[in-house]
What does this fold into?
Amino acid sequence: MIPLVDVKAQYAPFIPELQRRFAEVLESGRFIFGPEVEAFEREAAAYLGVPHAVGVANGTDALVLALEAMGVRRGDEVICPAFTFFATAEAIARVGATPVFADIDPVTLNLDPAAVAAAVTVRTRAIVPVHLFGRPAPLEALAALGLPLLEDAAQAFGAPGIATTGVCSTFSFFPTKNLFALGDGGLVACTDTGVADTVRQLRFHGSRDKRTFELVGTNSRLDAIQAAALRVFLPHLAGWNRARRDSAARYAELGLGEVVELPLDEPGHVYHMYVVRAPERERIAAALEDAGIASASYYVTPLHLQPALEHLGYPPGSLPETERAAAENLALPMWGGIGLAEQERVAAAVKSAVGVVV
Ligand SMILES: Cc1ncc(COP(=O)(O)O)c(C=O)c1O
It folds into this structure.
């Protein structure tokens, strides 16, 4: 079986180093916050080129805390895509604001700046672009609209040019992500010192000193064991992302573009997922399954059509490019280090599914 993502293949070579680092954490007796988490926060901030990074429990908390720290409140509108994981809009709703969905660009699958501009009202408080599947969203065009940006970078750690435009950028370290923990983890990167300070407070019950509680916050921590693992992996991320880009180029060389629409390559794309488009994607997915190859279609019911957000009143057909992408996308196996033999099998199976003799 070829999986969609082989997480173990990525961390297996590091097991001895992970064991050494975990032993050090055990010796230290410091499991919550402490020097390991602080060191990771410094290293992650340096990697991203931002002044502040705050570790939190997961990428969903990262979004909620960033929105709160940016001052998004009940009555505000926040523009985001509907072709993304539910957490993007969920976080907006969790702080009491209203998600306003803008359609996507059919080629990049990221927010279309013209659609965002058309969705701006006097209530718009922020824009949340998602760097979907590892491809940077058009930050310059979105920033030109003059509203604060919160970059949902859950799928894009290491993509060049991200995290320095938004007031905050949020990351998930779920084990399938480009930079991953061995469990849950998240990060808020901030370009604004005051906002970073508030995120720090909010993640610990709104307190700076554990005695005085200035805000009603929550408990959202990155723990030392996960930070230790992330510190082992971070120096290898650039290599993994290069390997993902090489593997994407190899899919193209193997002729996949003759039978399905390939993701447009751009230098900044770090291929968290390798997502092709094909109107006949169900047939291809079934053929891949028969050949022992995993594939997946993402956000098949986009967010504006999810039952939890029905009250927002978006009818089917209201975001045509989002709905078309939802109906046509198919993610093929991709991870940092997928082998040539595996990619050849995938390409052959996709071609034979659409009737090409291989
Ligand atoms: C775009 C996006 N935003 C937010 C999240 C939430 O991250 P987490 O699962 O760590 O809460 C994810 C991933 O799961 C995601 O893909």
User: Anything to note?
Assistant: Residues 59 and 172 are 4 Å apart (CA to CA). The mean pLDDT is 97. The two ends are 20 Å apart (CA to CA). The pocket of pyridoxal-5'-phosphate is lined by residues 58-60, 84-85, 87-88, 130, 152, 154-155, 172, 174, 184, 186 (CB under 6 Å).
